[in-house]
Amino acid sequence: MQTFARRSLLFPEIEASLAHINAYKYIVLNSISSAIIVEDDAYPSIYLKYWIESGSEIKNNLILCFYSHPGGHLNKISYKDYLKGKVKAHKAKTRLYNCSFYQINLNTCKTILKLTRGKVKTFADWPILSNKIKIIFARTMPYLTAMDNFNNSIIKN
What's the whole-model pTM score? Predict the structure, then answer.
């Protein structure tokens, strides 16, 4: 399989990436203007509740990560404040890894699906595609979630 990763992907990488691709297809098929992608090992913070209630939207070709590990490098000065300054968004200077909890809009989903032709081409942490499709990645400070260190699902809880 030809990938943007410059190496063969491991089965868990393919599986996770396919879940994101399928979510994007669902968003496009149902014309959902904005969506929050949450993997099953995420523990949302109270700020996520406020975030959703505020109806915070994001721009086209922007993926706003609510968590990333390792964090990557961010611009020191935030480009946008949310929730009356309690949450700040910082654009990424480098790739953000493990963005397992993020907001994306319809246009960005369409862009990714067009580039990938709806197939798995790389890991689910899409910043590896940013040079080809000019998607801006940003991260909230503080995080709007914590992730389980052992990749345990919290759905059963």
Answer: 0.81
